[in-house]
Amino acid sequence: MEGLHLVTAVTDRHRAEKVIRIFNENNVFTTDVVLGNGTASSEVLDYLYLTPVEKAIVFGIITDSGVSQLFKDFKNKMYIEVPGNGIVVSVPLNSVGGKRSFEYILDGQTLGSGDRKSSIFAEREKRMAVNTDFELLFVIANEGYTDLIMDAARSAGASGGTVIKAKGTGAEYTEKFFGFSIASEKEIHFIVVPAQGRNNIMKAIMEKAGLDSKAQSIVFSLPVSNAIGLWQPEQ
Is pTM beyond 0.70 here? Predict the structure, then answer.
């Protein structure tokens, strides 16, 4: 049974549409875009004959079987391995917050012969898990619902998080899947939590700020190999 990966592509902002198109061509229709800035020193930029540019960071989720072709397309269609053209990395997911979110983020992807998304959710969750002391919750939600999400997370034992603005894509696929539209203006919440408390925190977020709420949150977790500076409240 294959796992899932969060693929992150970083490139110049004017190339963001091409990145999204490559994701779409690989049946990853739901992506989120964050704007940023490069941090290379002037010496490095001079060496590579580059000028400082604004960046776009595009996130998408794909199965094991799709990663290889996706990376191949980035190499062949965007020459991503040429210095200055950007980077693409993938990170394994540990868990997805609910069967409905699982089905939504994989809508359009092939999960292998005979796979039925809704019926294999629990088994896939078990096989995806990587044992770590901490995990990073990745919460994608409509803009303006940070308090709702963080109150839900704190009620289950989380301490705090970080929020960044993002732009969702693939609205037409979202409407097809759910029968109603989801806002394109997004916020991504990063919350580091103890692995043993992950399920309760994800459950609280999905119950109070999930797809049926105004926040319409989707939650998944990533394994954290090392973490320092984390403070946990007294229980």
Answer: yes
By the 8 A CB rule, do 115 and 163 touch? no
87-92, strands of its sheet edge to edge = 87-92, 4-12, 54-63, 32-37, 162-168, 185-194, 134-142, 218-224, 95-96
Closest to 38 (Cα-Cα) out of 91, 83, 81: 83
- With a pLDDT cut of 70, the percent of the chain lying above it is 72
The contacts of residue 226 (CB under 8 Å, 6+ apart) are none
> Chain centroid to CA 38: how far?
20
Tell me which residue of 118, 14, 125, 108 sits closest to 61, measured CA to CA. Answer: 108
Q: Residue holding tokens 């079987």?
A: 65
Nearest C-alpha neighbor of 72 from the set 33, 22, 110:
22
Beta carbons of 62 and 5 less than 8 angstroms apart? yes
Among candidate residues 37, 48, 39, 47, the one with its CA nearest the CA of residue 84: 48
Question: Rounded to whole angstroms, how far apart are CA atoms 89 and 76?
Answer: 16
Question: Cα–Cα distance between 173 and 179 in angstroms, integer?
Answer: 10
